Amino acid sequence: MCGIVTAIATNNVVPVLLEGLRKLEYRGYDSAGLAVLSGSLSRLRAAGRVAELAALADARQLSANIGIAHTRWATHGVPSERNAHPHISGGLAVVHNGIIENFEAIKSSLEARGYVFESETDTEAIAHLVHSKLETHPDLFEAVRLATNELVGAYAIGVLAEADPFRAIVARRGSPLLLGIGEQGMYAASDTAALLQVTRKVVYLEDGDLAELRLDGYRVVRPDGEAVEREVHLSSLSADAVELGQFRHYMQKEIFEQPQALGNTLEMIAGGGAISPQHFGARAAEIFDGVRRVLVLACGTSYHAGLVARYWLESVAKIPTTVEIASEYRYRESVPEADTLVVVISQSGETADTLAALKHAKTLGMARTLAICNVPESAIVRESALRFITRAGPEIGVASTKAFTTQLAALALLTLALAKLNGRLPEAEEQRHLTALRHLPVAVQKVLELEPEIEKWAQRFASKEHALFLGRGRHWPIAMEGALKLKEISYIHAEAYAAGELKHGPLALVDKDMPVIAVSPADELLEKLKSNLQEVRARGGELYVFADAGSEIPESEGVHILHMPEHYGMLSPVLHVIPLQLLSYHAALVKGTDVDKPRNLAKSVTVE
Ligand code: G6P
């Protein structure tokens, strides 16, 4: 959701800015722009893709040693060239990611002073505010510091000024921003992927930090102006990790990376490794001790991972578990209990609601917090007492796939670690679970081989307007995830139900035009599910059943069966989500939608 790139270098930065924006495209955006200084300020904006902006830059043969660039995901004002960033005030240009909550008040006071607003954005208020500060504080860095101290809300910004052409200023609060130290200059961006083209040396800015980027270095200060040192990290990401390679889409690449992502995430138990609280950090044994309940907070796909974990935590570790949508939890009056382990799940570690829900739980006195996250230095990880970093690698497709299955792997380990601490995991059971976890990458690989059959199903699906997903028990959240995937990328309206609820409403929708997808593992609920499927057939509904070998659901007219491998016990949800990911991917391909960047959606939702 919005992306920023800033660069000052000895060579032309325009290609670096554009390539950085391309690498940030996955975050979700609807317009793009850049501003560079080369004698005077030049600004280019496009109400569309980065490719259009690049074409404009080419046509103008733009070249400069300093610049800022932006992909915008509309919040204040429609997606349009006029609202695209950078916004300008005098000779000063600003790009911004986030939402300024007090922008109306700032705007009114600036208008009263004669500033004229050309866009509907909150960002333009930042540009004029910094400009107004320059009247009394001619130093640009100081003017930005004073201006940001008046902002309420979330921001990551980049600022350039014609009158001060040898530095760029950046600042952040709430929205992500990191610095890159390159051979030919200094850079800043919303995430590492944008900077791998020039450097792997990065500095993560903390909330409230302001930084000045110069050709010969940088400095960071706090909001009161006090200088601070921030550690330099060497990113372990390789530029290849964010390349498409042989695949047509990132989503496809990421679906097929799942065996490796799971293997990497579960590396600690490879070979002879046992289940241990240590997997969650050095202090985990102490923090887990006395935990009587678990509260999971998350959004979107990560929330579905939490829902699966509830079944595991209650059945295996016998720990009462609640799973809540972060945006609900943060605003509702709840009853805190100190012996709760708060587990926040987030691919990006940036999701505004999940971060706020975590902070809210802490203010309620729940200090035992664990982040399950795919981005090591993210805000959510830094805010949590314990962390488990899934090693899915960068996930670029907006629809989350490998992040989900690696979250499930982490949650399975958590379940087993808590069960072991509570004396509920006999040695033989532990070994059985360890064997299943170690074998998981191979089992997933086998499911991926079903792709050609799923592709055929997708052909029939793509013409449908609605679909119903059914599942029971720990596969109900998998049905929910399947429905979410389908609507996200193919725009087919899809809903998921616990199959037992069918006759309490959704059955009324079933007819020959409503495909019903059933997640049907050969588990203890199979017989119940079979009865639900009969109810669908009796109403003329067409069934698409993902059954385990041995489920014994006969194929017949209107009942299509796809046989998965043997039933995989507790971890079966990890296998059953794979065909649903593939089904939505192929349905989207047939429909010709923008698979990796579906309309209106963003990868990292850094605003409420
Ligand atoms: C967005 C993404 C989803 C993701 C959700 C939560 O909506 O499009 O794919 O599941 O945010 O994101 P998180 O990074 O917190 O897992």
Automatic annotation (TrEMBL):
HAMAP family listed in its UniProt record: GlmS
Protein name: Glutamine--fructose-6-phosphate aminotransferase [isomerizing]
Pfam family, one: SIS
InterPro entries cross-referenced by the UniProt entry: GATase_2_dom, GFAT, GFAT_N, GlmS/AgaS_SIS, GlmS/FrlB_SIS, Ntn_hydrolases_N, SIS_dom, SIS_dom_sf
Gene that this sequence comes from: glmS
Enzyme Commission number, as recorded: 2.6.1.16
Biological role: Catalyzes the first step in hexosamine metabolism, converting fructose-6P into glucosamine-6P using glutamine as a nitrogen source.
Record organism: Parazoarcus communis SWub3 = DSM 12120
Enzyme class of the recorded protein, top EC level: transferase
Active site (record annotation): 2, 603
